[in-house]
């Protein structure tokens, strides 16, 4: 079988690191030999998150080595001599102290690619914080969403977004370093962070808060008010308590929803609703939403579902749990759910491959290994001889052409552009609608960063010829539109394959290339619903019993404020696109072979929720937050501290718990002597810790407990966009950078997601529509006169 990473040896280190595990499993799925180096008592994920361990470690081998001992360290050194990649998830300085850090291992094997995943990098005041998902999210401001929720204070959502994001970014970084090694013969050291893994979730608001600051406006208010009076997504409740997430990004989608709801005539006659999904003021927007709410609350779910399914212009999904998402017809059709036989648990239904590759299919046959069980030694092979000069950036020299709108696919290619790829965006005369969704060139600040744009009318023969000429010289082409759209524009797979046989063609659609839902539009909030975001983020309040008999007014007052989720449907998909595209490019660059690759938004979201997007006999329940979203337990929870501040606490071991009690000045208590006992007395422990934390401000607790190596941070109550835009530590440590926006001047944004020791990533500004018309056409051989003629004929449209 032709597997993309066949023959590569990967060592994975770092007990309890979800990010290292996820990065490792993507490589293992693609054919790499991945050896998970575990301590004698096993990776902590085996007990802390058994379902996550099961899915994130399939296809790997397990090797027991106590890296705190001389024997374990020496065993790792011997393995590193033959390894291609090391993925390390330890705290900064840990492996250096053991003599097995990046420099030490690379001295033994200059061809080695060493990637380290930390919370906030290896320097600066934040480097000492524990790299736990909840802590990084709290420090980055992700929990600061209470101002528009059901209560004051931060709200926790127990999803490992930081680990998932860092893992997919790490996969791309490793592939980029492998491509460099093909040329130079040398490996290099890479650094990835959980905080960078969270950056995709901030779609555009960091730009908005900076523009507000430039105008002297407050940036600390309700983030929803920053986007104006709009309803790009409406959550509806049926009479029997089922929730339906709709997306109304475009006017015809909102109107189609009104028709199905039976309020189409009312809306059409009222001038206040003529611009939906945008409105003149919040009151008009709310009245439109109320009309839909009243209509849907009048009938049961079984009445509405067939009507919604019969209208292809309505983008919607039903609120489900992750396990229920396994049954979604399109998930099943795509192969985004597979069955892997486990020696002890039997059949395990779980997330499928990150991409569906026509020539190099990913076949997953082995479950996660038992502790210490291996299938044999590392694969013997020669390292690349190299001899060429190092490229300027990891993906330099690779050209990717993008044909798609909004965020899910375009941000995936934007991350690849930050790693050095040349990305050319094909747009029509109006441009990507995302450019003006929240103000001129605001939402597109991230999705067009580092790209070139050509504005061409593909409805003309000349326009199609231009696009085809660009793609004929490219390495990859991506489209995010539904099947058939690209074909109508002369950009279908068969046509482009005939022009460029080595082309990697990626269809990154909402639902997939074909199947029962493939003709439907899909956006972020609905896409995440398929994967179980409702069940994971706000599960308590989606139970029909919580809203039984409620009027619409009562629903809006009591239940709906509890259902405000973090919107991750686009960001999760973008990260999966990045990983799949990187893998496809690795094969294409090494072999010269093109192929068709299919990804989907629903598949990418299933990956983000993959530790619960699985089912098997005896599966333990995934920890969910309490009904007010303070946390999943007393030791993974938000606590109010003095002066209105909050801490986020994450304690993972008995030793950490003992240190916590000692630092807080609390006596050991028989009720809390073990993890089992603590679970039985969780409410009592919450009360005990809650009283203690109120004695000092959160900043003091963060300093004191972090110094004692207990996971605790001062919760950022200003929000992730403000943190990214203005936090001085991020700037000082290189985790954010400044770029010159073509309309708004200097804008601060997250640095490229991976740092490379030899071939740095690229920082470049966003582009405006059609900015590179002339340079791209001149490169294709067109004269100034030809280009002017194209403008006169409206084949191309100059930038505004």
From TrEMBL:
InterPro entries: CoA-transferase_III, CoA-Trfase_fam_III, CoA-Trfase_III_dom3_sf, CoA-Trfase_III_dom_1_sf
Alphabetized Pfam families for the sequence: CoA_transf_3
GO MF annotation list: transferase activity
Keyword field contains Transferase: yes
Keywords, sorted A to Z: Transferase
Entry superkingdom: Bacteria
This protein's record includes keyword Methyltransferase: no
Protein name, as recorded: CoA transferase
């Amino acid at each position: 079988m032709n597997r993309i990473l066949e023959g590569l040896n990967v060592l994975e280190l770092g007990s309890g690191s979800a990010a290292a595990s996820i990065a490792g499993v993507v490589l293992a799925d693609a054919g790499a030999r991945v050896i998970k180096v575990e301590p004698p008592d096993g990776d902590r994920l085996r007990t802390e998150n058994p379902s996550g361990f099961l899915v994130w470690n399939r296809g790997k081998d397990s090797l027991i080595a106590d890296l705190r001992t001389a024997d374990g360290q020496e065993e790792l050194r011997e393995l590193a001599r033959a390894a291609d990649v090391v993925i390390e998830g330890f705290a900064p300085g840990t492996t250096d102290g053991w003599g097995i850090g990046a420099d030490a291992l690379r001295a033994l094997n200059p061809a080695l690619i060493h990637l380290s995943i930390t919370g906030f990098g290896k320097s600066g005041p934040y480097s000492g914080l524990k790299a736990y998902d909840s802590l990084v999210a709290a420090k980055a401001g992700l929990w600061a969403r209470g101002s528009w929720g059901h209560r004051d204070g931060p709200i926790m959502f127990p999803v490992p977004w930081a680990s998932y994001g860092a893992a997919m970014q790490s996969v791309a970084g490793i592939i980029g370093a492998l491509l460099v090694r093909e040329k130079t013969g040398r490996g290099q050291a890479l650094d990835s962070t959980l905080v960078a893994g969270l950056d995709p979730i901030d779609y555009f608001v960091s730009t908005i808060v900076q523009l507000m600051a430039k105008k002297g406006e407050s940036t600390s208010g309700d983030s929803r008010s920053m986007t104006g009076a709009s309803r790009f997504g409406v959550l509806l409740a049926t009479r029997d308590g089922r929730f339906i997430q709709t997306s109304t990004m475009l006017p015809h989608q909102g109107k189609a929803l009104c028709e199905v709801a039976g309020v189409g005539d009312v809306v059409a006659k009222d001038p206040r609703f003529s611009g939906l999904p945008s409105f003149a003021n919040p009151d008009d927007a709310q009245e439109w939403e109320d009309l839909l709410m009243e209509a849907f609350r009048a009938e049961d779910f079984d009445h509405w579902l067939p009507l919604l399914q019969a209208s292809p212009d309505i983008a919607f999904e039903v609120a489900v749990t992750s396990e229920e998402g396994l049954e979604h017809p399109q998930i099943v059709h795509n192969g985004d759910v597979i069955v892997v036989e486990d020696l002890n648990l039997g059949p395990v239904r779980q997330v499928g491959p990150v991409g569906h590759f026509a020539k190099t299919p990913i076949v997953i046959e082995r479950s996660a290994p038992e502790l210490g069980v291996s299938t044999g030694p590392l694969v013997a092979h020669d390292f690349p001889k190299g001899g060429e000069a190092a490229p300027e950036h990891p993906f330099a020299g690779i050209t990717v052409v993008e044909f798609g709108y909004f965020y899910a696919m375009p941000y995936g290619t934007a991350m690849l552009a930050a790693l050095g790829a040349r990305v050319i965006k094909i747009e029509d005369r109006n441009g990507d609608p995302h450019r003006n969704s929240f103000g001129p060139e605001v939402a597109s600040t991230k999705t067009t960063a580092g790209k070139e744009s050509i504005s061409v009318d593909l409805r003309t023969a000349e326009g199609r010829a231009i696009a085809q000429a660009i793609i004929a010289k490219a390495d990859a082409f991506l489209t995010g539109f539904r099947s058939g759209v690209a074909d109508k524009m002369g950009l279908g797979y068969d046509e482009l394959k005939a022009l460029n046989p080595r082309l990697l063609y990626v269809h990154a659609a909402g639902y997939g290339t074909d199947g029962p839902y493939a003709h439907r539009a899909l956006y972020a909030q609905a896409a995440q619903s398929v994967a179980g975001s409702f069940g994971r983020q706000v599960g308590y309040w989606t139970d029909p019993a919580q809203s039984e008999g409620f009027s619409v007014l009562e629903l809006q007052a009591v239940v709906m404020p509890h259902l405000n989720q973090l919107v991750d449907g686009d960001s999760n998909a973008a990260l999966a696109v990045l990983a799949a595209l990187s893998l496809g490019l690795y094969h294409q660059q090494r072999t010269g072979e093109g192929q068709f690759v299919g990804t989907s938004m629903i598949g990418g979201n299933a990956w983000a929720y993959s530790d619960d997007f699985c089912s098997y006999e005896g599966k333990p329940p995934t920890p969910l937050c309490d009904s007010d979203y303070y946390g999943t337990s007393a030791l993974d929870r938000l606590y109010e501290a003095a002066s209105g501040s909050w801490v986020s606490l994450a304690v993972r071991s008995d030793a950490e718990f003992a240190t916590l009690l000692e630092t807080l000045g609390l006596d050991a208590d028989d009720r809390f002597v073990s993890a089992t006992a603590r679970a039985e007395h969780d409410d009592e422990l919450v009360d005990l810790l809650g009283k203690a934390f109120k004695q000092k401000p959160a900043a003091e607790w963060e300093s004191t407990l972090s110094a004692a190596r207990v996971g605790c941070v001062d919760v950022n109550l200003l929000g992730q966009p403000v943190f990214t835009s203005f936090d001085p530590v991020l700037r000082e440590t290189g985790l954010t950078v400044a770029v010159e926006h073509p309309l708004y001047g200097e804008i601060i944004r997250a640095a490229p997601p991976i740092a490379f020791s030899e071939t740095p990533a690229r920082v470049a500004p966003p582009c405006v529509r059609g900015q590179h018309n002339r340079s791209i056409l001149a490169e294709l051989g067109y004269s100034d006169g030809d280009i002017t003629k194209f403008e006169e004929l409206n084949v191309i449209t100059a930038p505004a």
